[in-house]
Task: inverse folding
């Protein structure tokens, strides 16, 4: 394969809501560029990209896939990202290593919620943007309506460069507004359009659209504006140059039309990517972390120093782990020893590939600006940087969205706990949008993901790939216990005499509440020697043990101050264990006398929905004891911020989907703890008592 420098490389990310046709479009692009010999179909299971068993089973892209093709003496790398909302974190990572986002817009449904959400990620990374109105062959397809929605949502920077000839079953080609050339295609053909005359009924609209395009281009520079005003028009080359400049600075976002399924207009997309979109050499600044400091460094693709970033780890059967890497500068070559600067380990580079779905082309070098795969690295995975040993910084890791939905899991077969841990760790290397950890305060292993579908797929993979099955339970809420008033001079005496040396400890404590978030404080107020100095910390140990166990409902105790104020010892029988027991029991006695309450975790919820669903969402949040803190409308979307008890949103994902017909999304972060209402607290305490009684009976 020919080697390309960064100027000749275009790195592109396909993004959109699920089901708009990103993978199908990539199949068509590779086939049109003769990178593949047949036009694969997702629906038929013949795609070279959606090849994972879970992707075939669910008929959806689950993991980012890399493809490449060569077009007009340029190399185009394409990252095909999942569009299903549970997996949008994949797009966030992919956008960080590409220079252009191709946003697919459904020719019937327009801009959907997933497209709107991922477009925010495009805004964050400030990458160039191009729109492709896909599915012009569908019944009820409407390019004019889609274009109007794009302009309404993204502003007048959206400028059509191609328009469709026909729509629905009559869709047969596109017209290039730059050259005023019309192209007709064979459906599901080789993707190369045949020049035809512009249909007579479209002559006027094409002329008007081309004039509007020239006006948009003229605004990109004073020179072009003067030329346009003086001569009343611009040449094809001037339009192309103006559009390319506008794409680079974000003032122009080209809009193209076509059908990936029928392979119509895809050659125009490839041409526009090559001619108008920024090259890999255009990226000259990278955000990095050195020590604890985050900064921006100047980087050029042809710099000799290697700086590369692993943005995705995949595990392939019969091959092993493959790390997808973007080389920002220098090169990565076989035999090269690089530093994983975040982990402080060296990696010797072995086999590497340029990747097109399940196809791999061997290479001995990935140059600056290019994207490829590194096989079987020792300790390097997603978010790691591989650099020359002289480099002291690493690329800022991708910040993935916080998981929203949780389930408690336990091995169905006793002894399979280690298999679960190994399987989850492997899956988490491939998918950073979920987390798994043991919560000691609720004594459950909690698996958290972005949605129910992602949870199901993780557990399917545990079963199918790692041969381990789990039981699913509703996660317990991480309540806390505390007090609302003080108890003074509470006494407890521990005596144990069973022959020989006995145990004796007498202690007096004061217990008082601390401000929320105050934690725990132990104060030694003993005056004189009523309790020997070495025995006083034993009281603290006993109290701490009870803090972890809880008293009224089995949850950790917080925000209390214990003062050891008096006591008594025995010259022979007083020892560490006696004062630990006394500390535990006196604390329990004082706690029960201090009006104990339950605290519940409250999260800050941000719910984004189309404005027509705002009333339903507000009503639902109110029914969940939510307190709305603010509302913000951006375009046709409303974002509602509310503080809601975590116990009330365990099933919120499915509820939101139902209320908004799948068009809403949300995020959450922990906010604070606050008192559980008495009637709710009573249910929690009774459930704990019933569970304890069940365990005692079982024993």
Result:
């Amino acid at each position: 394969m020919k080697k390309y420098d960064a100027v000749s490389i275009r790195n592109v990310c396909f993004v959109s809501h699920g089901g708009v046709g990103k993978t199908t479009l990539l199949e068509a692009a590779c086939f049109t560029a003769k990178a593949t010999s047949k036009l694969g179909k997702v629906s038929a299971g013949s795609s070279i990209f959606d090849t994972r068993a879970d992707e075939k089973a669910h008929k959806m892209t689950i993991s980012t896939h890399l493809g490449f093709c060569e077009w007009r003496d340029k190399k185009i790398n394409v990252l095909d990202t999942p569009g299903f909302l549970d997996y949008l974190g994949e797009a966030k990572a992919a956008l960080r290593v590409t220079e252009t986002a191709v946003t697919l817009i459904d020719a019937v449904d327009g801009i959907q919620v997933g497209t709107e959400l991922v477009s925010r990620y495009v805004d964050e990374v400030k990458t160039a943007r191009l729109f492709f109105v896909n599915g012009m062959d569908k019944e009820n397809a409407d390019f004019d309506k889609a274009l109007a929605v794009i302009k309404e949502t993204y502003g007048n920077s959206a400028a059509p460069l191609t328009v469709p000839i026909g729509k629905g079953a009559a869709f047969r080609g596109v017209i290039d507004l730059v050259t005023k050339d019309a192209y007709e295609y064979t459906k599901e053909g080789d993707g190369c359009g045949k020049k035809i005359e512009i249909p007579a009924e479209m002559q006027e609209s094409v002329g008007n659209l081309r004039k509007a395009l020239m006006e948009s281009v003229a605004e990109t520079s004073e020179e072009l504006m003067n030329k346009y005003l003086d001569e009343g028009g611009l040449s094809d080359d001037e339009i192309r140059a103006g559009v390319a400049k506008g794409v680079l600075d974000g003032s122009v976002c080209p809009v193209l039309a076509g059908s990936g399924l029928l392979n119509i207009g895809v050659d125009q997309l490839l041409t526009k990517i090559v001619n108008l979109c920024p090259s890999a050499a255009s990226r000259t600044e990278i955000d990095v972390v050195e020590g604890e400091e985050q900064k921006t460094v100047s980087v050029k693709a042809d710099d000799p120093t290697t700086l590369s970033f692993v943005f995705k780890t995949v595990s392939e059967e019969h091959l092993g782990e493959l790390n997808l890497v973007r080389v920002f500068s220098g090169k990565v070559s076989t035999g090269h020893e690089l530093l994983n600067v975040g982990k402080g380990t060296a990696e010797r580079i072995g086999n590497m590939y340029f990747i097109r779905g399940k196809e791999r082309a061997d290479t001995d070098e990935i140059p600056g600006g290019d994207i490829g795969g590194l096989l079987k690295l020792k300790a390097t995975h997603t978010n790691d940087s591989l650099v020359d040993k002289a480099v002291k910084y690493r690329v800022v890791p991708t910040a993935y969205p916080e998981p929203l939905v949780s389930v408690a899991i336990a091995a169905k077969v006793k002894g399979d706990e280690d298999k679960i841990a190994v399987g989850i760790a492997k899956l988490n290397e491939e998918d950073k949008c979920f987390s798994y950890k043991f919560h000691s305060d609720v004594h459950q292993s909690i698996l958290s993901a972005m949605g129910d579908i992602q949870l199901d797929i993780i557990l399917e993979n545990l079963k199918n790939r790692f041969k381990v099955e789990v039981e699913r339970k509703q996660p317990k809420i991480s309540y806390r216990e505390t007090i609302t008033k003080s108890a003074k001079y509470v006494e407890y005496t521990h005596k144990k005499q069973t022959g020989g040396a006995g145990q004796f400890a007498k202690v007096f404590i004061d217990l008082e509440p601390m401000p929320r978030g105050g934690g725990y404080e132990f104060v030694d107020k003993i005056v004189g020697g009523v309790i020997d100095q070495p025995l006083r910390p034993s009281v603290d140990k006993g109290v701490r043990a009870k803090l972890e166990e809880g008293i009224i409902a089995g949850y950790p105790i917080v925000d209390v101050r214990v003062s050891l104020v008096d006591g008594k010892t025995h010259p022979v029988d007083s020892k560490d264990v006696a004062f630990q027991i006394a500390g535990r029991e006196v604390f329990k006695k004082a706690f029960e006398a201090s009006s104990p309450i339950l605290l519940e975790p409250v999260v800050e919820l941000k719910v984004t929905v189309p404005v027509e669903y705002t009333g339903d969402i507000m009503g639902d949040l109110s029914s969940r004891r939510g307190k709305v803190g603010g509302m913000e409308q951006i375009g046709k979307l409303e974002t509602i911020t509310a503080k809601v008890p975590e116990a009330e949103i365990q099933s919120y994902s499915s509820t939101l989907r139902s209320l908004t017909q799948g068009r809403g999304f949300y995020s959450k972060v922990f906010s604070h703890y606050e008192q559980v209402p008495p009637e709710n607290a009573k249910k929690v305490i009774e459930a704990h008592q019933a569970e304890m009684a069940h365990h005692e009976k079982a024993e």
Observations:
- The CA atoms of residues 492 and 585 lie 7 Å apart.
- The first strand starts at residue 9 and ends at 15.
